[in-house]
Amino acid sequence: MSIDEKTAAHVAKLARIRVEEARLPELAQEFNTILGFIEQLSEVDVDGVEPMVSVTPQRLKRREDVVTAGGDAKRVLSNAPDAREGFFAVPKVVE
Q1: What is the model's pLDDT at position 50?
Q2: CA 80 to CA 61: how far, in whole Å?
Q3: Domain residue limits, the chain
Q4: Is the pTM of this model over 0.85?
Q5: Considering Cα of 49, then 51, then 52, then 58, what sign does the dihedral take?
Q6: Per-position pLDDT tens, the chain of length 95
Q7: CB-facing half-sphere around the CA of 83: CA atoms within 13 A
Q8: With 80 labelled, which of 10, 46, 48, 52 sits at a CA distance of 20 to 30 A?
Q9: φ, ψ at 67 (rounded to 5°)
Q10: What 3-state DSSP class applies to 3?
């Protein structure tokens, strides 16, 4: 897969990152380099390898799964820049 300048501009727009037109070729090349590293990772044989959460062996902290009344929705949403119908409202970023 190869990223062209048009696609790089589209990704920047979706990420809401302003990129000058002159920098688009460099950004497209950076994306292609990243995709190349990802393709290299897909070549690694990971059959039989246990998933890890850290490079050092450790157990995940566990807690009791206790049902509570939940938080105070009005108090939580009071800090939201935009809240509607009891939910956080966010701008649409996927076209």
Answers
A1: 85
A2: 30
A3: 5-42
A4: no
A5: negative
A6: 789 999 999 999 999 999 999 999 999 999 999 999 999 998 999 999 888 878 887 777 888 888 887 778 888 898 899 999 989 999 888 87
A7: 12
A8: 10
A9: -80, 130
A10: coil
**Structure tokens belonging to residue 75:** 């108090």
Pairing of strands 87-88, 83-84: antiparallel
- Any bridge partners for residue 83, and if so which? 88
Residue 31 three-state SS = helix
One-letter amino acid at 57 equals P
List Cα–Cα distances, 31 to 16, 17, 22, 39, 67, in angstroms.
16, 14, 16, 12, 44
CATH topology of domain 5-42: Histone, subunit A (1.10.20)
